[in-house]
């Protein structure tokens, strides 16, 4: 029996013109730039910038804005640690230990249960080395 029907390919790809790219570039430098300042930088009207940003949000391309905190300004260092465990290692014991430590910000498995990554925040390198 032959297939009778259609396949609908969903192309979620969108095209960005040079104006959209410039707006995104400025937002990548500082997500708090106002539409007015972006418009002034690009020699556009504020309405055009507003329309473009809203269009990128409607197309599900631009999802909002985030805040990145510079923890070094607070006197902290963030360490990212990758660990490859031996199969005979007690993995659950290690996970329990990491989760209980308040300095650990995240724990995740990478491509297998034996490949682990965690993030740790310390005030000094010595504190990290002692851990």
Give an account of the 3D structure.
With 131 residues, the chain is an alpha+beta fold. It is 37% helix and 17% strand. The protein is built from 5 helices and 3 strands; from the N terminus they run αααβαββα. The protein has helices spanning 18-29, 35-42, 46-58, 91-100, 125-130; strands at 77-84, 104-109, 115-122. Strands 1-3-2 form a 3-stranded antiparallel β-sheet. A hairpin with a 5-residue loop joins strand 2 (104-109) and strand 3 (115-122). Helix 2 (35-42) crosses helix 3. The protein starts with 17 loop residues before the first helix and ends with a helix.
List the helices and strands and how they pair.
Blueprint: H1 18-29, H2 35-42, H3 46-58, E1 77-84, H4 91-100, E2 104-109, E3 115-122, H5 125-130
Antiparallel strand pairs: 1-3, 2-3
Helix pairs in contact: 2-3
Q: Runs with pLDDT <50, length 5+?
A: none
Spatial arrangement of strands, main beta sheet: 1-3-2
Q: In percent terms, what proportion of residues is strand?
A: 15-25%
Give me the strand/helix succession. HHHEHEEH
Tertiary shape: elongated
Distance between the termini: 65 Å
Give a quick account of the main beta sheet: strands, pairing sense, barrel closure.
Answer: 3 strands, antiparallel
Question: Helical residue percent?
Answer: 25-40%
Q: What is the C-alpha radius of gyration, as a whole number of Å?
A: 24 Å
Q: Report the total helices.
A: 5
Class from secondary-structure proportions: alpha+beta
Instruction: Estimate the mean pLDDT confidence.
Output: 86
């Amino acid at each position: 029996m032959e297939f009778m029907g259609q396949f609908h390919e969903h192309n979620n790809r969108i095209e960005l013109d040079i104006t959209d790219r410039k707006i995104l570039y400025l937002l990548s430098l500082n997500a708090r730039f106002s539409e007015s300042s972006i418009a002034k930088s690009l020699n556009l009207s504020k309405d055009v910038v507003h329309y473009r940003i809203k269009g990128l949000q409607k197309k599900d391309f631009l999802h909002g804005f985030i805040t990145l905190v510079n923890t070094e300004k607070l006197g902290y260092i963030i360490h990212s640690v990758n660990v490859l465990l031996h199969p005979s290692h007690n993995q659950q014991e290690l996970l329990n230990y990491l989760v209980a430590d308040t300095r650990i910000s995240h724990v995740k498995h990478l491509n297998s249960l034996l490949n682990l990554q965690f993030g740790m925040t310390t005030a000094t390198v010595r504190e990290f080395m002692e851990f």
